[in-house]
Specification:
This protein has nine helices and 14 strands. The chain is α+β, with helices and mostly antiparallel strands. The relative contact order is 0.09. The structure holds adenosine-5'-triphosphate and magnesium ion.
Amino acid sequence: MKLKIQSIDIDFHQIVENSLNAIWILGTEGEILYFNKACMKLLKLTSPEDILSKKLYTFLPPDIHAPCKERLIKVIETQAILESIEAKMIRSDGEVIDVEVRTVPYHLKGKVYAQVIMQDITQRKIAEKLLNDREKLASLGQTAASIVHEVKNPLTSVKGFLQLLKESQSHSYLDTMESELEKALETLQNLLLVSKPNLHDEPFVSIALGKELESLLFLFQEKLCNMKVELNVRDAERTVVGKRSLLLKAFFNLIKNAIEAIPDKGMIEIEHYYENGWVHIKVRDTGVGIAEDKVKLLGTPFFTTKSDGTGLGVTQVFTTINEHGGGVSVQSVVGEGTIFHIRLPAE
Ligand SMILES: Nc1ncnc2c1ncn2[C@@H]1O[C@H](COP(=O)(O)OP(=O)(O)OP(=O)(O)O)[C@@H](O)[C@H]1O
Ligand SMILES: [Mg+2]
């Protein structure tokens, strides 16, 4: 449709076609009748053929197919403007992104379709999560530090008295008591270290993580013999600024967990690349995976499903990455495997 305003021809088709929002016209079955350029960009598709004759469901995670169908039917039947919702889409490269979706009716030749308008909100969600995680971890760190302080002092004095007692008399239980106390004190110290990594007075230095990953993997060579390991380092020259031993420990913890998640044979893939100002590291394993309700617990001190685990590894990862201004996201499917995706600001 063309409208003349003060002798300028307004071409509405061009406005829609070049809109920054992804705009779809869909039928009740999710069939795609129209899509603009932003849809291709959103899904990182290069050719319109990749979309034509497909249904929108091709690009949606399976768990939102049913609610999406409901919305399409609702907008077409009631012809009402639906409240906006947040959803996820799968890009052509497999990356899952967050989108905000608004759905309004679209009338054409006496028929009603759904006009779906999408905006990529992945970056906003990442920023929100970072802020949330940081607040959560800060309060976790405070709580842990004060508990450690309260418990460590009396335990240290018990240890002192125990040593005095050992000097004056001997009993086989005294050694056991002392070593058990040592263990308790060590756990407390570890909790303090992982919850408040900024207490480390290690200097910030330039680190090329891409180059460090190989030597980290080397530490696990014995355990890796019946696994396929792929190290895929791109942009190896990129550096981040950070506390070296803390960051290496975080990646050590991630690789250790990936190995422990694979009961028999499997694959571990570590990817390093640079994108949009961030250094990305993905640690992917084909292990047992993590149940959805347990993913929320990752990062909580002492959460473990292993008989000999301390449950401090992932806490160390979260707190360290957060302290370095980065972020962690986890994708996991039970029985298929897990991906830990770390982002750190590039230097
Ligand atoms: N890659 C993974 N695959 C499956 N489960 C994982 C993975 N990474 C972490 N987990 C789950 O998260 C829990 C917590 O991990 P975390 O590293 O904090 O402690 P842990 O591995 O149990 O003990 P520790 O690291 O002290 O040996 C694990 O027990 C496991 O259930
Ligand atoms: Mg661990």
